[in-house]
């Protein structure tokens, strides 16, 4: 029997940094309310499910956070204030363009006139780095981007609820873009061993419980006036639309974006109660560096505006 969402929160303690993050979110939201901004919560990356309290091992999923990080950039570009709620160490907006050795490869070391080493961007890389840096600096200066991190499923659910409490003040001007890959199974806190599972004790039996579907209280209680967008990931084309529609009927939110694991970078389907449409990138568009998230965000911005004005 899956626990209810109330039981989940009663049985799984909040993360130690919840109060600190709550305060950051409250201050950010207060500022955006004063400016009359539209706001979007982008959830991004996968949640972990720890197998021990002092966690050595955990169950994870495939999500790298690419969808969330690139969408956050396009939302900023479209004038939204963005709360980017992401798995710690997953892909982040702006930084994603210059990750790892790519960044170091953009730099060069030379000697200044007094002989001390100077580090600068290679002239050949300036045109690549400049637009990214300019957009990053603009987001910093406009104070329209707030990043908050989670790791475990429980961190994610606590943080999500805390952010929703702040977003409810925005009414229909808030959008929730739930792109994180949230685990459907977990080990309840009281069933988890404290210490590392020992191999000398033999093959462990790990019993996973079903995670309550958090979209239900989110849509009906926490942010009932907001424009809520959920994602549906499948691997079988034949059940994608059916599952997306079933989610809409169950949770009564505004739109489900269906995607297949295999083609998620170049094709998505927008499913609403009355409509179904597709966004697709051709091979040559992909080669030119176009991203499907640009099309997704443009579509959602239009739909959100119609929703706010009551013309949808
Ligand atoms: O990060 P990338 O590598 O770029 O990949 C992007 C993506 C494929 C992860 C993304 O596009 C996507 O599809 N995200 C949702 C995947 C997912 O978890 O689907 P789901 O069927 O488990 O959940 C559907 C919706 O229910 C989600 O919007 C989730 O927020 C919500 N949910 C999930 C579990 C749960 N217990 N409660 C929920 O409310």
UniProtKB/TrEMBL annotation:
Belongs to the PPC synthetase family. One of its GO terms (molecular function) is catalytic activity. GO terms for biological process: coenzyme A biosynthetic process. Residues 1-21 are annotated as: Disordered. Transmembrane segments: none annotated. Pfam families: DFP. InterPro entries: CoaB-like_sf (IPR035929), DNA/pantothenate-metab_flavo_C (IPR007085). It comes from the Eukaryota. This is DNA/pantothenate metabolism flavoprotein C-terminal domain-containing protein. Residues 166-285 form the DNA/pantothenate metabolism flavoprotein C-terminal domain.
């Amino acid at each position: 029997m899956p626990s209810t969402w109330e039981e989940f929160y009663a049985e799984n303690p909040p993360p130690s940094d919840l109060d600190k993050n709550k305060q950051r979110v409250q201050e950010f939201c207060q500022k955006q309310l004063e400016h009359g901004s539209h706001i979007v919560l982008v959830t991004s990356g996968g949640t972990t499910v720890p197998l021990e309290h002092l966690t050595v091992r955990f169950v994870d999923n495939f999500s790298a956070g690419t969808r969330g990080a690139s969408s956050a950039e396009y939302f900023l570009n479209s004038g939204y204030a963005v709360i980017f709620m992401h798995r710690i160490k997953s892909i982040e907006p702006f930084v994603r363009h210059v990750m790892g050795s790519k960044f170091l490869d953009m730099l060069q070391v030379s000697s200044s006139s007094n002989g001390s080493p100077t580090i600068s961007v290679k002239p050949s890389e300036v045109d690549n780095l400049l637009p990214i840096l300019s957009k990053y600096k603009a987001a910093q200066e406009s104070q329209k981007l707030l990043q908050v991190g989670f790791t475990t499923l429980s961190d994610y659910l606590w943080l999500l609820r805390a952010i929703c409490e702040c977003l409810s003040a925005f009414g229909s001007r808030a959008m929730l873009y739930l792109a994180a890959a949230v685990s459907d199974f977990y080990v309840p806190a009281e069933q988890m061993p404290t210490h590392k599972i020992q191999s000398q004790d033999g093959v462990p039996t790990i019993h996973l419980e079903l995670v309550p579907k958090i979209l239900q209280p989110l849509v009906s209680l926490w942010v009932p006036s907001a424009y809520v967008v959920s994602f549906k990931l499948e691997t079988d084309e034949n059940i994608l639309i059916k599952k997306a529609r079933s989610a809409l009927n169950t949770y009564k939110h505004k739109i489900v974006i269906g995607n297949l694991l295999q083609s998620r970078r170049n094709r998505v389907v927008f499913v609403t109660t009355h409509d179904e449409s597709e966004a697709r990138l051709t091979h040559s568009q992909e080669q030119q560096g176009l991203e499907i998230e640009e099309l997704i965000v443009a579509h959602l911005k239009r739909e959100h505006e119609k929703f706010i004005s009551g013309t949808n």
